[in-house]
């Protein structure tokens, strides 16, 4: 069978890169299988995409909120019709188990529907009172212009919609740079917008390396907003570049060293389930993955015994099969996970479970099996404080909720966390004192709701959350004042008399 070749989607047309070069996307469960070939774009392709977006902006802005929103509804419907084939592409390209891949698509559909509904609500600013009663004031949300969305591979359909849905409805044009690991998912998104009839230049998808395509988009003087989700190191570099441009804003959503806090009074079954989901779903490759289970010392033995017994049963295998989790994204992901497992040994922790000697589900795929270790909290330990981005989890005994929260806060990250307790006072204490952007009670610390903001504090992001929290980033509020009087009356007692 001929290898699939997909182009960039620029100015409403499918085009190869001007360099004529291509890169491959491979199936992480079966790396011998090439998913497709994608254009290795460069600065000329970026220039074309940015000029097209800038050229499309005025007409798109003038179309109005409701008409723009309707495109998002069309796209949501197309994704609903293609839920299963699209989920299969995610499973094939990202190695995510099929059920998780379906959830990725459903999240994208919800985000597109949310953006549509937002447009139909028509809440496009606020009406405000003025000191001078004959003045009418309002604030209108103006789109900023060209929005660049740079996305990671682990939610290859959902995250692009978190970032582009509201951007478009609010009147911006969007250039999406999908991860090099999941370009087919990015190309499918372009295809849905094309099928929905979006005007040329409003949505563009450009493939290629982050260091070339991504950084040229960030630095381009005609891009006004950069929405980045990915690693802390790349996010920091983007923030530094954006700081050179007075009129450019950016959001960076990065990693975490999240935790589930398990209190003495916890429902143990719930705690074990929350721990397993938080530590191992998506092979531990979620920004909200729990690398730490902070367990009250009075129940630590009982919890550990049950957790390890369950982790022994967790099924790992081909993403298309009915397993708990699928493949790692690539060889670097496997090596990083192995390094963290090795670090736990070198740093003197007690290894409770390492299933990596078991035969891999496929001989050539990228696999890591659950790794569980335990020991006292040390903030100088790298494996306890840095993001492993793999199925690697520590059980750390703590004394009560206050110590659990103090340990939670004792890393440079602050993305998500949860507490398992039957005591609402402990839950309330944790909610108020945990330095995080996403908090759960009696739930795993993974998951995302499109109606809520999604983002972290400290090194997990720059406090401008994505999804529903993005509106202030995508627009600038214009302050408008009308005078309904026949004369000019100034505020603050300022005389309007011309002498
Ligand atoms: P990554 O940082 O390697 O890549 C993310 C994107 O940035 C890719 O599209 C890549 O091409 C691009 N990129 C790379 N270098 C660039 C540069 N110099 N300039 C501009 N763009 C560049 O991340 P990844 O491996 O794809 O994803 C994993 C990371 O993402 C983890 O740290 C995870 O925690 C984080 N993540 C965060 C969230 C969140 O919402 N906080 C969600 C998902 C993933």
Task: Give your account of this protein's structure.
Helix content is 38%, strand content 22%. It has 499 residues and is α/β, with parallel strands linked by helices. The model has no long low-confidence stretch (mean pLDDT 97). Nicotinamide-adenine-dinucleotide is lined by residues 150-155, 177, 179-180, 210-211, 214-215, 218, 229-231, 234, 237-238, 253-255, 287, 387, 389, 415, 454, 461.
List the main descriptive attributes of the protein structure presented here.
five-stranded parallel beta sheet; alpha/beta; seven-stranded mixed beta sheet; globular; Aldehyde Dehydrogenase, Chain A, domain 2; 499 residues; binds nicotinamide-adenine-dinucleotide; Aldehyde Dehydrogenase, Chain A, domain 1; 15 helices; 2 domains; single chain
Layout of helices and strands:
Layout: E1 8-10, E2 13-15, E3 22-27, E4 30-39, H1 43-62, H2 65-81, H3 83-94, H4 98-121, E5 125-128, E6 135-143, E7 146-150, H5 158-169, E8 173-177, H6 183-195, E9 203-205, H7 210-219, E10 225-229, H8 232-242, E11 249-253, E12 258-262, H9 268-280, E13 290-296, H10 300-313, H11 331-346, E14 350-354, E15 371-374, H12 382-385, E16 392-398, H13 400-409, E17 413-414, E18 416-420, H14 424-433, E19 438-441, E20 453-454, E21 457-458, E22 466-467, H15 471-474, E23 475-483
Parallel strand pairs: 7-8, 7-10, 8-9, 10-11, 12-13, 12-18, 13-16, 15-16, 18-19
Antiparallel strand pairs: 1-2, 3-4, 5-6, 6-23, 14-15, 17-21, 20-22
Helix pairs in contact: 1-7, 2-4, 3-4, 3-6, 4-5, 9-10, 13-14
């Amino acid at each position: 069978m001929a290898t699939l070749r997909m182009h960039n989607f620029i100015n409403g047309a499918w085009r190869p890169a001007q360099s004529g070069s291509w890169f491959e996307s491979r199936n992480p469960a079966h790396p011998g299988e090439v998913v497709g070939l994608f254009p290795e774009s460069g600065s000329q392709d970026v220039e074309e995409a940015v000029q097209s977006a800038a050229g499309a902006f005025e007409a798109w802005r003038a179309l109005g909120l409701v008409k723009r929103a309707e495109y998002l509804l069309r796209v949501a419907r197309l994704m609903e019709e293609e839920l299963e084939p699209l989920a299969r592409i995610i499973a094939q390209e990202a190695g995510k188990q099929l059920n998780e891949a379906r959830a990725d698509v459903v999240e994208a559909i919800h985000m597109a529907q949310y953006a549509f509904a937002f447009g139909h609500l028509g809440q496009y600013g606020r009406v405000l009172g003025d000191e001078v009663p004959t003045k009418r004031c309002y604030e209108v949300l103006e789109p900023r212009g060209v929005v660049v969305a740079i996305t990671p591979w682990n939610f290859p359909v959902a995250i692009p919609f978190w970032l582009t849905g509201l951007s478009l409805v609010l009147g911006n044009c969007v250039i999406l740079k999908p991860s090099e690991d999941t370009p087919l998912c990015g190309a499918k998104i372009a295809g849905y917008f094309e099928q929905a009839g979006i005007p040329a230049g409003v949505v563009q998808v450009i493939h290629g390396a982050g260091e070339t395509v991504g950084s040229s988009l960030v630095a381009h003087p005609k891009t006004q907003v950069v929405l980045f989700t990915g690693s802390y190191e790349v996010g920091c570099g983007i923030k530094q570049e954006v700081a050179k441009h007075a009129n450019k804003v950016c959001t960076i959503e990065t990693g975490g060293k999240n935790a589930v806090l398990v209190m003495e009074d916890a429902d143990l079954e719930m705690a074990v389930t929350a721990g397993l989901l938080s530590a191992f779903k998506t092979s531990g490759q979620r920004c909200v993955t729990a690398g730490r289970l902070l367990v009250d010392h009075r129940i630590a033995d009982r919890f550990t015994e049950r957790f390890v017994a369950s982790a022994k049963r967790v099924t790992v295998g081909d993403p298309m099969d009915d397993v708990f989790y699928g493949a790692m994204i690539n060889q670097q992901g496997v090596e990083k996970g192995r390094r963290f497992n090795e670090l736990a040994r070198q740093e003197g922790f007690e290894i409770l479970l390492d299933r990596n000697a078991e035969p891999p589900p496929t001989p050539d795929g990228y696999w890591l099996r659950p790794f569980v270790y335990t020991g006292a909290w040390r903030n100088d330990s790298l494996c306890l404080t840095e993001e492993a981005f793999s199925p690697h989890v520590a059980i750390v005994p703590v004394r009560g909720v206050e110590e659990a929260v103090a340990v939670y806060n004792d890393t440079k990250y602050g993305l998500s966390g949860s507490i398992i307790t039957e005591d609402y006072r402990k839950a309330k204490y944790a909610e108020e004192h945990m330095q995080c952007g996403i908090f759960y009670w009696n739930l795993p610390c993974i998951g995302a709701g499109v109606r809520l903001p999604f983002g972290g504090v400290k090194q997990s992001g720059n406090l401008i959350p994505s999804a529903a929290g993005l509106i202030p980033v995508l627009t600038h509020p214009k302050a408008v004042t009308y005078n309904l009087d026949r004369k000019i009356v100034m505020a603050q007692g300022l005389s309007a008399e011309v002498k």
